[in-house]
Amino acid sequence: MRSSKLIADRFEIADLDSDLIGRGGMGNVYRGLDRQTGQMVAIKALRADLLASNPEMLERFIREGEALRQLNHPNIVAMLSAVQEDGRHYLVMEYVEGGSLRDLIDRQGPLPVRRILEICLDLADALTRAHRLDIIHRDLKPDNVFVAKDGTPRLTDFGVAHLAGSPSSTQPGMIIGTIEYISPEACRGEPLDGRADIWAFGVMIYEMLTGKRPFKGETITDVLLAILSEPAPDLDLDILGAPEALGDLLRRMLEKDRYQRIASVRLVGAEIEALLHERTGSKPGLDTPGRFNTPTPPMAKKGRSNLPAQAVPFVGRESELAEVARLLEAPDVRLLTILGPGGNGKTRLAIEAASA
From residue 54, how far is each of 13, 57, 139 by CA, in Å? Predict the structure, then answer.
């Protein structure tokens, strides 16, 4: 006998067994019908037993709804309604027909480079929106990315996200996120910022390229030690058919010191966009500007160099570059040190000076 459920006299789950489409840490997700619009919806129900044993789960559930409410973006699953009824709590969201990025990787293994760039460009755009609103996802992984039938990715599950201005529900030293994707600073239980999402994004790109996670171990402790102390395994970019600039971007996303990591997900998106335009032979023009407003990178210089490849042009710092060149040519200068706060482009300036 089928067991159905009607929520707020509007959202209907026809069969609680056959319409169960997912189980998460906080609750179950069902396929449902919005009787007002006739559209399919996804209904996330907070587990009553979990709420009874851990009241903090309600705070996280509410925070997820608030994050989704603020994040109006085509690559983030939209929230339609939050319902509290008969002591139960529900989030009604956009239903994405397809599967998760995890399903895609498990089914296909390594993905084609162009497909990876397309997915990552959309995800970078979504994360840029979140970070602009000071929302940190903190659990970025392929399981939390839906891929619609048209191939468009949708970021979901903001259950452990941190919202600006809201008190933290985690204790100092507590590890937040899924072990294989957490950053070194998360391993140490430090307060997190958007660079933790950049690290997890880098792990996802590595996994899409190879079908494997970069940091593994037989136990949780082994994985944590690998994240903290072992470099990501080298990629054979020729075999993977990936450009050198993508490997360089990945290395900068997986810098263990977050102050040396690429500074923002917007910069990640800019480099991915440039790589995608280079690969497709197109470039944004005046009528169709790029999503991150970056032109196609110039052709790499001929000749062998061990300097990291740069996917985007170096502009707006000509005077600084000229001053570095002048000092390097001065006969009384034997060592030049570039100083400045983390993330302000010291490394890029040095690379450009060395390449000149």
Answer: 26, 6, 20
Is the Cβ–Cβ distance between 108 and 151 less than 8 Å?
no
Q: What is the pLDDT of residue 290?
A: 66
Q: Phi first, then psi: what are they for 134, rounded to 5°?
A: 60, 35
- Position 245 scores a pLDDT of 93
Q: What is the predicted pLDDT for the residue at 249? A: 96
Each residue's pLDDT tens digit, 190-243: 988 999 999 999 999 999 999 999 999 999 999 999 999 999 888 888 888 899
3-state class of 164 per DSSP?
coil
Element (DSSP H or E) covering residue 162? strand 162-163
Q: Choose among 243, 235, 241, 354: nearest CA to 297.
A: 243
Contact 326, 351 (CB under 8 A): no
Report the C-alpha gap between 35 and 9 in whole angstroms. Answer: 8
Which among 25, 85, 33 is positioned nearest to 61, based on CA atoms? 25
pLDDT of residue 298: 43
* Residue from 122, 139, 157, 197 carrying the catalytic annotation: 139
| C-alpha torsion angle, residues 128, 126, 249, 312 (rounded to 10) | -70
Going from the C-alpha of 288 to that of each of 120, 122, 249, 266, the distances in angstroms are 20, 17, 25, 19
The pTM (predicted TM-score) of the whole model is 0.73
- The token duo for 176 is 């937040």
CB 92 within 8 A of CB 80: yes
Enumerate residue ranges in the chain where pLDDT < 50. Answer: 163-172, 285-288, 294-305
Question: Domains plus CATH for the chain?
Answer: 5-94 (3.30.200.20), 98-280 (1.10.510.10), 318-355 (no CATH)
Give backbone dihedrals phi and psi of 230, rounded to 5 degrees, phi first: -100, 140
Asked if 224 contacts 187 with a C-beta cutoff of 8 angstroms, the reply is: yes
Q: Is 104 helix (H, G, I), strand (E, B) or coil?
A: helix
Q: What is the pLDDT of residue 1?
A: 56
Does residue 157 have an active-site annotation?
no
